[in-house]
Each structure stands twice: as C-alpha cells, then as structure tokens.
Amino acid sequence: DTEVTQTPKHLVMGMTNKKSLKCEQHMGHRAMYWYKQKAKKPPELMFVYSYEKLSINESVPSRFSPECPNSSLLNLHLHALQPEDSALYLCASSQDPQNSYNEQFFGPGTRLTVL
Amino acid sequence: AQSVSQHNHHVILSEAASLELGCNYSYGGTVNLFWYVQYPGQHLQLLLKYFSGDPLVKGIKGFEAEFIKSKFSFNLRKPSVQWSDTAEYFCAVRSYNTDKLIFGTGTRLQVFP
User: Fold this and answer.
1) What is the DSSP letter of A43?
2) Pairing status of strand A105-106 against strand B64-68
3) A12-38 residues labelled b (16+ CB within 10 A) or e (exposed)
4) Which has the closest alpha carbon to B19: B54, B59, B71?
5) Which partner for B6 in B32, B38, B70, B104 could form a disulfide, CB atoms 3.0-4.6 Å apart?
6) Residue A112: in which H helix or E strand, if any?
7) 3-class DSSP state for residue B105?
8) Nearest to residue B30, comparing CAs of B83, B94, B96?
9) Using CA atoms, how far apart are residues A90 and A110, in angstroms rounded to an integer?
10) Which residues of B touch A105 (CB under 8 A)?
C-alpha cells in the first residue's frame, strides 16, 4: 500500500458544527502532516506529527485540533469554523522525520465548505 | 524567513513546445528541493527532487530540473510538452534541518493540442 487516504472527500458544515477529517497511511511512515490549500494558492503547512508527537504547529487557530492516535492515523478535529476556513485540507506522510532525505506523499484531500 | 518564488503564474503552450518554469528560493543554508504537480482534480504528486549530488535531476514523465546553487534556482524543464501535462506545478523547498516544506505560489500550465 503506497498511498495516503483521506476521508471524507467532501464536507459541508455549519459554523456551530463539530466534525473530523481523517487521514491514514500504511507505508510505515513516522511523520504526518496537515496542510491547508485555498483555491489557486499553494499548500500551507498547519501541523507536523513526528513519531506520533506534535512537533510543529504553524500558529493555527485552536478551532483546528489535530490528533495522532497511532503511527498510521491522523485526525483533524474541527469546531466553530468560519467561512474563510473553507479550503482543501491535505494530509501527507513521510518515512523518517529525522532523515533529511525525506519526501512527502500527499493524499487527495478533503474539500471543506463552511456555511 | 524562507520563501519560494515562481515567477511564471500562467503559461500557455502548444503541444511539442519546450517548457521551462522558474523557481527561486531564499535560504542560505543547505536545502532539499522538490517539484510537485497537481493535475486537475487529482492530488499532489512528486515530479522530482534534489537532495545532493548531480545538480541535474531527472524525474517522471520526461521532466528534469537543474539546481544552480549560486542563483538559488531550481528550474523545471521538459523538451516537448503534451496536452496531458496541463496542470498546476509547485516548487517546494525544505531547509536541511527542518521538516517544513515551503511551497511556491504555483504555475498553471495549459497545453493546447
């Protein structure tokens, strides 16, 4: 299995809803990432988990809450989002965060719309 | 702070034309360099990468890139584009001692038959 999967593909939520995005990889990778990509813009890093521990938080608002229950799974819990949070949320993984020769593999993303 | 510049925002070519997309970065230390492609409706895929060694890197689908350290550049090239190369192309840089990947603003390539 050489891919990163993300569910759901699409999500529409209201500003008072609580929802979660899920990301999974079975490549034995020990680093996982969340990115946000607005239309016609590059992906922007949100969080990095390294060996299941949060290693980088790019000053993301607390209405986004990441969780890494195990080395294969990464969640992003959403609560009280704003319409400007509508975007494509990308998950990625890489083999060894301590190895500089490290490339990231991206999932297809979850397209989130906040009403 | 690190930044990545892609000066070509939108490129339109006919099939069989040659392609060169510019990428410049600002960081003085050792870097890893990447080009990713995002086909319409598909996820980001790695085209090629540079970590060390030969500065001319060959990737998938006939793409290559050249790392010129003195110019802080990593331009992407393809001698003859195809309609199927229509996509968004992102250059990305990671400094050697971090796990943060910084993307350029992207270049939208349209190839007409």
Assistant:
1) -
2) unpaired
3) ebeeeeebebebbbeeebbbbbbbbbe
4) B59
5) B104
6) strand A110-114
7) coil
8) B96
9) 7
10) 46
Which residues, at least 6 apart from A35, have a Cβ–Cβ distance to it below 8 Å? Answer: A43, A44, A45, A46, A89, A90, A91, A92, A106
CA-nearest residue to A109 within chain B is B43
Structure confidence at residue A1 (pLDDT): 59
pLDDT tens-digit map of A3-16: 999 999 999 999 98
Pairing of strands B87-95, B31-38: antiparallel
Distance CA B103, CA A42 (A): 6
Tokens of B82: 């195809």
As given in the structure block, the two tokens for residue A87 are: 């975007």
pLDDT digits (tens, 9 = 90+) for B54-63: 999 999 999 9
Q: Which of A43, A56, A90 is opposite residue B99, by nearest beta carbon?
A: A56
- Calpha distance A25→A37 (Å, rounded): 20
Q: Do B43 and A102 touch (CB under 8 A)?
A: no
CA of residue A89 relative to chain centroid, distance: 6
> Which stretch of DSSP H or E encloses residue A105?
strand A105-106
Element (H, E) at B66: strand B64-68
Residue pLDDT, tens place only, A84-114: 999 999 999 999 877 777 889 999 999 999 9
